[in-house]
From TrEMBL:
PANTHER family: EXPORTED PROTEIN (PTHR40032:SF1), EXPORTED PROTEIN-RELATED (PTHR40032)
Pfam family, one: Amidase_6
Comp. bias intervals (Low complexity): 173-182
The UniProt record lists the keyword Signal: yes
Residue span(s) of domain Putative amidase: 213-364
Entry protein name: Putative amidase domain-containing protein
InterPro entries: Amidase_6
Signal peptide start-end: 1-22
Protein's UniProt keywords contain Transcription: no
Region called Disordered, residue ranges: 155-186
C-alpha cells in the first residue's frame, strides 16, 4: 500500500513539456481502462457475450468479480438494474506494469422469486436496493496496440490484506463459519432468535433486558448506509476515516438503546467500558467502541445484550458479524445484520456496514468473495 502511494510522488515538471504530456496520457489511459473494466463487470450480468475489445483474461476477471460471485440466484433472488462505478484512488508504474488502487461500487436491485421472502428492519420488502463498495488492486499491462488491459484483480481488505473471489462458491461453507459442524449449504439455516416470526410480530417486544431494541439498531444502520449517506458518517461521533466499521456498529447499537458506560483517558482501553465520547476529550472513543476485537469482547462478555453464535449464517436481525480476512486469528472487520432472505424454512442474513459502505448485502455474497477467511458472530439476546 505504501509502495503505491510512493509511486505517485514525482519530480516537479513544467506544464506543456513532453514529460507532462506523457504523464497526462498515462493518467487518461489508466482511468479509461479502469472505467472500461467496470463497464465489463456490469455487462457480464446482462449480456456476457458482448465483451467488446476485452481480452479473455479481462472477461474472466470481470465475471469472477461480478456475476460469478453473486449468490442471488441460489438465494432465490432475481438481479436487475445493475450499475458498476469505478474510482481511481492512486496508481504507480514500473517496468513490470501499472498497479492501480480503485474503488469499485456495485449497485443491484434484488427481487424475491416465488417462495422467497425479504425482511429488513422488521418489515417485509418486495425488493432490495443493494449496494457495496470495495477497494481493488488492479494490475494493468500494456497492449500491442497501445493502452492497457487488466491482467489481475485482487480485493484489498480493510486491514490491507488481499482476497480473491472463490471460483467454487458452493464449496465455501466450511471456511466461512467458526463452527466445524456447519457442513453442507448453511446459507439458509434458521437463525435461533426470530426468523420464525412474521413481520407483523416485530413491533412488540423488540428491546431486550439490556435495553437494546434490535429494530432501532437496524433502522440506524439502514439510514446511514443508504444512497444519501453512503459517503457520510454521523457527525455526532468520531470519524476514523477508512477504519469506521466497528465505530459504525457501535453507533447502531447505541441508537438501538444499549447504554454506554463512563470512561476516562485512563481506562479507555479497558474491556469493560464502552462509549463514543470519553469525558473531557473532543470526540475520543474507547477501544471497545472502534476496535474489532475489543468490541467483540465487550459485547460478548459485558453488554448482556448478545449471545455468542458460532455459525454466522444463523445470526438474526440486530446481531453482529466479525470477519478475520486472513484467517490468522485476528478479526479485522465488523458489520450488523439488518434482516434476512428466507426461502421456506431456510434463511440467510443481510448486512450493513462501513469501510467501505455496505448497504443491504446478503452475507453469502461477501463470504464467496473472500475465500479462506473466517467469521464469528453475536446473536441479539431476547
Amino acid at each position: 500500500m505504501m509502495l503505491l502511494a510512493a509511486g505517485l510522488t514525482a519530480t516537479p515538471i513544467l506544464l506543456g513539456s513532453p514529460t507532462a504530456m506523457a504523464d497526462e496520457l498515462v493518467h487518461r489511459e489508466v482511468n479509461q481502462t479502469v472505467q472500461d473494466y467496470g463497464d465489463l463487470i456490469e455487462s457480464q450480468y446482462t449480456n456476457p457475450n458482448a465483451s467488446g475489445e476485452a481480452t479473455g483474461t479481462e472477461k474472466e476477471l470481470a465475471r469472477l468479480n461480478g456475476v460469478e460471485s453473486d449468490q442471488s440466484e441460489s438465494s432465490g433472488l432475481t438481479v436487475s438494474n445493475v450499475d458498476v462505478y469505478t474510482t481511481v484512488n492512486s496508481y504507480s508504474t514500473s517496468a513490470e506494469g501499472t498497479s492501480v488502487l480503485s474503488d469499485v461500487t456495485v449497485k443491484r436491485r434484488l427481487t424475491p422469486e416465488p417462495g422467497t421472502t425479504i425482511v429488513i428492519a422488521g418489515e417485509q420488502r418486495d425488493h432490495l436496493d443493494s449496494e457495496y463498495t470495495e477497494t481493488h488492486l488492479l494490475e494493468l499491462q500494456g497492449t500491442a496496440t497501445g493502452g492497457y488491459e487488466v491482467a489481475d484483480d485482487t480485493i484489498v481488505n480493510t486491514d490491507g490484506s488481499y482476497s480473491k473471489p472463490d471460483p467454487n462458491p458452493n464449496e465455501e461453507a466450511a471456511s466461512t463459519t467458526t463452527s466445524s459442524a456447519a457442513g453442507g449449504d448453511t446459507r439458509f439455516t434458521r437463525p435461533a432468535v426470530y426468523t420464525a416470526r412474521t413481520a407483523r410480530t416485530y413491533a412488540a417486544g423488540t428491546a431486550n433486558r439490556a435495553g437494546l431494541d434490535y429494530i432501532k439498531a437496524m433502522q440506524y444502520a439502514e439510514l446511514w448506509t443508504d444512497a444519501a449517506h453512503k459517503d457520510k458518517m454521523n457527525p455526532k461521533y468520531p470519524d476514523y476515516g477508512d477504519n469506521n466499521c466497528t465505530n459504525f456498529v457501535s453507533q447502531a447499537i447505541e441508537a438501538g438503546g444499549l447504554k454506554t458506560t463512563a470512561a476516562t483517558v485512563l481506562n479507555r482501553n479497558h474491556e469493560d467500558v464502552w462509549t463514543g465520547f470519553i469525558w473531557g476529550t473532543p470526540k475520543m472513543s474507547t477501544l471497545t467502541w472502534h476496535n474489532v476485537e475489543a468490541n467483540y469482547t465487550y459485547m460478548s462478555k459485558h453488554s448482556n445484550a448478545f449471545t455468542v453464535e458460532n455459525n454466522v449464517q444463523r445470526i438474526g436481525g440486530g446481531g453482529l458479524v466479525y470477519a478475520d480476512w486472513q484467517n490468522d486469528g485476528k478479526y479485522d472487520h465488523a458489520m450488523i445484520v439488518v434482516g434476512y432472505i428466507g426461502r421456506g424454512s431456510k434463511t440467510g442474513p443481510v448486512v450493513c456496514g462501513k469501510s467501505g459502505n455496505t448497504h443491504d448485502i446478503p452475507l453469502a455474497d461477501i463470504t464467496v468473495k473472500h475465500r479462506g477467511m473466517k467469521w464469528k458472530g453475536l446473536q441479539w439476546k431476547p
